[in-house]
Amino acid sequence: MMQGKQSIAFEKAPYIIASASIVGTKEGEGPLGKLFDMVGEEDHFGADNWEDAESGLQKDAVYLALKKANRKPEEIRYLFAGDLLGQSIATSFGIMNYQIPVFGLYGACSTCGEALSLGAVTVASGNATRVLCVTSSHFASAEKEFRFPLEYGNQRPLSASWTVTGSGAFIISSEAEKNARAKITGITTGKIIDYGLKDSMNMGACMAPAAADTIYQNLVDFGRKPEDYDRIITGDLGHVGQLALYDLLLEKNIDIGKQHMDCGIEMFDQESQDTHAGGSGCGCAATVLSAYILKQIEEGTWKRILFVPTGALLSKTSFNEGQTVPGIAHGVVIGGV
Fold first, then answer.
1. CA distance 288 to 233
2. Which of 30, 143, 161, 332 could bridge 280 with an S-S bond, Cβ 3.0-4.6 Å?
3. pTM over 0.85
4. How far apart are CA 56 and CA 75, in angstroms?
């Protein structure tokens, strides 16, 4: 099933049989607000702190996905999960009561792509009948983890993105089962790409080189052109990163302007919601995929898309020590059933 340098083409494509999306109040007020399965009335979601709120997002997203698939936790072989917080505490406290064997993942905002890739490989290789993939992020917990607590009231430059409060969960199966939403026909695993940028308030520019590298390699590995995809969808580049992505690919004579879409741009209304560059976070690409992208595939509007969540691989420690902000992006080829 190996394809080119970094890709896999599945001989028997695994199916996404169910998915769920939960978002916060700001996301619910955005252009996609009516498509999400659940929108919180307030961003604490009844919890005592932001971290517990994010754990609750994952717990509820998994519950909804299982309910939609009419499956019990014991019918899931493995769980692939991750978040942005130190030691992945949103994940560990959110999903531990399901008692599903778990692989904890960290790919920053690209974690949804990483989870879907590993889940698809596990199912396609015959090592599981069903797996569940879930990721999450929360604006307030991420600000506290990577920048400043909200009480500090720091100003944000126009290049800054807004971490999405949300969680997306997906059940991947070896069989279409009932009402399968889509199938994963291939993946392109990303490399760590570092252009030497150090601005944590311009994540789009930091991640764009990784997105460009993965998209280019996907096209080479599968022998495709941009027009072979109805959409090439990045996760978290926003308005600034989108322009950088276009420029980097044009250097290789690849123009994706007609096919490109970014989940961070689609999530918020730039004029009315004051999110500057757009959305980001593990929950950004995951919730847009579940609520909007898979809907377009189900309805036949799009036949085949390349889904490329992007992540910035930094921590408070690396940033404070003057390190650069490397990026990574994982590509997932998704088509109709």
1. 10
2. 161
3. yes
4. 22
Q: Is residue 133 part of a domain?
A: yes
For residue range 30-42, what is the model confidence (pLDDT) as tens digits? 999 999 999 999 9
The answer to whether 71 touches 130, Cβ cutoff 8 Å, is: yes
Residues belonging to the chain: 337
Reported as half-sphere exposure (CB side, CA atoms, 13 A), residue 12 has a value of: 11
124 and 186, same domain (yes or no): no
Clarify whether residues 83 and 199 are in a common domain. Answer: no
Per-residue pLDDT of 78-111, as tens digits, reads 999 999 998 999 999 999 999 999 999 999 999 9
Residue 295 pLDDT exceeds 70: yes
The answer to whether residue 5 sits within a structural domain is no
Is residue 2 situated within a structural domain? no
Does 255 reside within a domain? yes
Quick one: what percent of the chain has pLDDT higher than 90?
A: 83
What's the pLDDT score for residue 287? 98
